[in-house]
């Protein structure tokens, strides 16, 4: 049985011109210890689909699915305390833009301890000790001092490490990482990816990596789902995807990598898809 299994997931939002379908009939599954990458350009529905799984979309969103199970538990009807027993504890998420995701009004220590207080019911002294341990695990120096730091007093890389510490606080079985390195410089990106993969292997977590970066996919994933305009257009193991992609859109994504540039300008994904479709006629 898969750790997470989703069948025919769709997400729509009401607009002034009618319903906009951001996710259209997505199927996916991930096993314990597996790294699944969901890749596609901005607006392809990657983040929206995972926010639907987490139950974090606004009431204006309409979410439907034939199945959405975690360890066999149907998540579609879970609300309140029962949902919180799974989401945030067994299933955790690292969000984009750590500086926007952390609360600027509270210290790093308070925000980590809040997770421990909600899900593990630890006492004050135990929460502090665990928070220090978590900051050490994600590579933050002088963790006792950093507990008292506010987000604006830390670098982007440190804030992202705090977000990872919060996500890992309850030893989740499934971690969803939504563009975890987007706002960071190249050196810090490498450090964060290495840290995530190290922790994933140590805890044998299922990991869903949401990204538009094919380099990240090649480095981290076991299996890949490619999304385009809210739909899954291809799914394959990572080696097959890079060596023999089946779909025009996947080939376009790979062709748009910087190392594949010819001349001074990279072709756009739209140009490549159109050219591929024209050649197929």
What can you tell me about this protein's structure?
This protein is α/β, with parallel strands linked by helices. The protein has a domain at 247-281. It is 41% helix and 24% strand. The chain has helices at residues 46-54, 80-86, 98-101, 108-119, 124-137, 143-146, 156-168, 186-203, 214-220, 238-243, 248-255, 269-280, and strands spanning 4-15, 18-30, 35-39, 61-64, 67-70, 73-74, 91-94, 174-178, 206-211, 223-228, 231-237. The strands form 2 sheets. It has a 6-stranded mixed β-sheet, with helices on both faces. β1 and β2 (18-30) form a beta hairpin. α5 crosses α7 (156-168), α7 (156-168) packs parallel to α8 and α11 (248-255) crosses α12. The longest helix has 18 residues, at 186-203. The radius of gyration is 20 Å and the shape is globular. The termini are far apart.
Number-wise, the strands total 11
- Helical amount: 40-55%
Alpha carbon gyration radius: 20 Å
* Biggest sheet record: 6 strands, mixed
- SSE-based structural type: alpha/beta
Total of helices: 12
Shape: globular
Largest sheet: spatial strand order: 7-8-9-3-10-11
Overall residue-averaged pLDDT value: 87
